Amino acid sequence: MTEDEFQEFVAPCGDDQRAGLTGLRDLVLRHSTGLDEAVNTGRWLTGFVFYSTSGQMVYAFGPKGRTKISFHMMPYYGSAVLQQRHGRTLDPFLTGKSCIAFRRLDDVPVDALIDIVERGTPIMQQMVADHLGTRARVTGARPRPKRT
């Protein structure tokens, strides 16, 4: 995603949302590597900015209503360690198992988000690679017969 595309994405948002979304983008880009960035056109979280690896979502964020921001963090959902480490500080913002919602980025514990992104990204990348490698080996060993 280019800077111009991101600016187009945040253009309809209010000032606080625009600032928060820009801050989240900066946080994810600065504290992770190797993720693809694009606006999701799929079934779930349509219109959110997705950060993915091999087509699997790792993070997603977007506006929630007119004033809030929603940030989905799959590493948090999948890690008991991250949940134990940051559960208490994120609890007031949690809206689901991996999602927080807030008005301004300054309202949330940014250090916790940085830790989740720094520690969680490589773990998720490895999990996806392992899953895809296993699936490829299994399907490669047993090709399905073609139907005629």
What can you tell me about this protein's structure?
With 148 residues, the chain is of the alpha+beta class. The protein has a single domain (3-141), classed as Aspartate Aminotransferase, domain 1 (Alpha-Beta Complex), CATH 3.90.1150. Helix content is 49%, strand content 19%. The chain has five helices and five strands. The protein has a five-stranded antiparallel sheet with strand order 1-2-3-4-5. Strand 3 and strand 4 form a beta hairpin. Helix 4 (80-90) packs antiparallel against helix 5. Residues 136-148 have low confidence and may be disordered.
Sketch the major β-sheet.
5 strands, antiparallel
Multimerization status = single chain
Which CATH class is shown? Alpha Beta
**pLDDT averaged over residues:** 89
Count of DSSP strands: 5
Number of domains: 1
Low-confidence stretches: 136-148
